[in-house]
Amino acid sequence: MEEATAAGMFVMAHAQAADGIKNAVRAGIRSIDHGVFLDDEGIELMLAKGTWLVPTLVAPHGVLEAAAAGAAIAEPILEKARAVMTRHTNAIRRAIEAGVRIAMGTDSGVTPHGRNLREFTLMAELGMAPSAVLESATRSAAQLMGVDSERGAIEPGKLADLVLVDGDPYGFDTLADRISSVYLGGRQVI
Predict the structure, then answer these.
(1) 2-151 is classed in which CATH architecture?
(2) Is the pLDDT of residue 113 over 80?
(3) Which distant-in-sequence residues (6+ apart) come within 8 Å of 123 by Cβ?
(4) Cβ atoms 95, 123 nearer than 8 A
(5) Among candidates 40, 28, 130, which has minimal Cα distance to 93?
(6) Beta strands in 30-158, from DSSP E residues, in sequence order
(7) 164 and 181 in contact (C-beta within 8 Å)?
């Protein structure tokens, strides 16, 4: 943490176990990715330190779906994915209710890119307001990464990174099918 801070860099941790999460937060980590076994003490520490949470709720679903589609995944990994889903969702629900800062992330190495929008539905199911879900992937994600002075919101002076959708932007279940265009830095790419 000292070296990263001295270099002007953030440190983020992929942490699942309660003790590892708390140790990372105490050390000054910027975000916890996963937070599977996040407990109430960890939530309180995160609130006190302003630590972000990147839930990656879609990750265990991706493991199970890959196996169902024929991917060779060892049984202990499948057992873990099944075993953690309820604990993970309960931990993230409590963090949301407590007001922990949430940024969207998906562990897309586990779930293929392009399917990461499912994270929106999973976050909404745990009690996040639809507007907060969208903000987790825009303004909040930009704040977490330290690029919010140029990205994350539609404001004068910021890069025009936009995803335009037909219909209700809060209809998360069908959002991926309704993307009409994508702009990166003001230039249409899709």
Answers:
(1) Alpha-Beta Barrel (3.20)
(2) no
(3) 55, 57, 92, 96, 102, 104, 133, 136
(4) no
(5) 40
(6) 31-34, 52-54, 101-102
(7) yes
Q: Cβ distance 18 to 39 under 8 Å?
A: yes
Q: Which two tokens stand for residue 34?
A: 């996963």
Domain positions in the chain are 2-151
CA 82 vs. chain centroid, Å, equals 20
To the question of pTM greater than 0.90 for the whole model, the response is yes
Q: Which two tokens stand for residue 41?
A: 């003490």
- Find residue 34's DSSP bridge partners: 15
For residue 184, the cross-strand partners are 187
Mean pLDDT of 81-100: 96
Token pair 């995944």 in the structure block, residue: 73
CB 32 within 8 A of CB 52: yes
Per-residue pLDDT tens digits for 14-68:
999 999 999 999 999 999 999 999 999 999 999 999 999 999 999 998 899 999 9
The single-letter code of the amino acid at 73 is I
Q: Are residues 37 and 17 in contact, defined by beta-carbon separation less than 8 angstroms? A: yes
